[in-house]
Amino acid sequence: MSIIGLLTFTNLNNVMAQDAAAAAQTEQVTDDSAAVAEEAVAAPVAQAATDEAEEAKSFHEVLKEKYIQGGAGWMTPVLLCLILGMALVIERIIYLNMATTNVNALLDGIEDNVKKGDYNAAKELCRNTRGPVASIFYQGLDRVEEGLENVEKAVTSYGGVQMARLENNLTWIALFIALAPSFGFLGTVIGMVTAFDDIEKAGDISPTVVAGGMKVALLTTVFGLIVAIILQIFYNYLLTKIESLVAQMEDGSISFMDILVKNKK
Fold first, then answer.
1. Helix axes 59-70, 207-262, angle to 10 degrees
2. Same domain, 67 and 50
3. Virtual CA dihedral for 65, 70, 72, 74, nearest 10 degrees?
4. Helix (H, G, I), strand (E, B), or coil: what is residue 19?
5. Contact (Cβ atoms closer than 8 angstroms) between residue 66 and residue 187
6. Higher pLDDT, residue 215 or 188
7. For tag attachment on the chain, is the N or C end more exposed, with fewer CB atoms within 10 Å?
8. Distance (Å, rounded) from C-alpha 95 to C-alpha 242?
């Protein structure tokens, strides 16, 4: 009986030990599963937090980051093209807007004074009116006593002078439009050369080897094209504005000569 009891007690201990080990293993598996589940849940949360942090960046911060990544040596000339080009564009816009004149009202005032024979009053009216049209009319009135032929020559000659003034600085704007993408493409070529040099040194064509040079190449090209597009839009606006003013000058000059011919004494 003692032997049987001893054997029974021993088996019972073994069974209990096995049950404890199984329970511990089950608990470990459960803990591992919970940890994996927590990591699986935490990973998207962390990624979402990273995405939100990136989205929270302002446009200025993103632009500065891309500027640095593109390389200051190649991005600075492109930036200078934008700054200088826009400075000239703003100057031209202000000048052309100030050059706009109400030609019909000016012609009516000149005709009223010419009918009275008061050419000095007509000249004073032109002197007090801003814009190239008023300047052309003033030059014509200043030569009325020399005959209508000389008046017409003066109007034509001074019209060419005023047209040249309207087109002033447009050649520089066109230069910056051409230079901006040129600097961008130059940065692209240098970036590609750098990428191939890195490949040659590393003896590998992995993305990490060529990423730096390719980034410089792409960013400089993008910024150069953006600057050129911005300046080109303003350049076309200025050309349209100048064409409008030139047409105004030509129509006004014809009407001005008609007034002088009609009131010739």
1. 110
2. no
3. -150
4. helix
5. no
6. 188
7. C
8. 11
Q: What is the pLDDT of residue 260?
A: 87
Per DSSP, 147 falls in state: -
CA angle centred on 157, ends 153 and 163, rounded to 5°: 145
pLDDT surpasses 60 at 55: no
- Exposure string for 91-107, b = 16+ CB within 10 A, e = fewer: ebeeebeebebebeebb
Where among 56, 77, 93 does a domain terminate? 56
Q: What's the CA gap between 213 and 113, in Å, rounded?
A: 72
- What value, to the nearest 5°, has the Cα angle with vertex 141 and ends 140 and 142? 90
* Cα–Cα distance measured from residue 161 to residue 257, given in angstroms and rounded to the nearest whole number: 19
Mean pLDDT computed over 124-153: 88
pLDDT tens per residue, range 56-101: 667 567 656 665 665 667 788 888 999 999 999 999 999 999 888 8
The domain of 4 spans: 1-56
Query: Same domain for 16 and 68?
Result: no
For the whole model, what pTM was predicted? 0.69
- The 3-class secondary structure across 44-95, one letter per residue, is HHHHHHHHHHHHCCCHHHHHHHHHHHHCHHHHHHHHHHHHHHHHHHHHHHHH
Degrees to nearest 5, angle at CA 246 with 244 and 247: 65
For the four alpha carbons of 199, 205, 206 and 210, in that order, the dihedral sign comes to positive
Six token digits for residue 143: 């030569």
Number of domains in the chain: 2
Q: State whether 147 and 259 are in the same domain.
A: yes
Give the list of residues 6+ apart from residue 120 with CB closer than 8 angstroms, or none.
none
Residues 27 and 68 in one domain: no
User: Rg of the Cα trace of the chain?
Assistant: 41
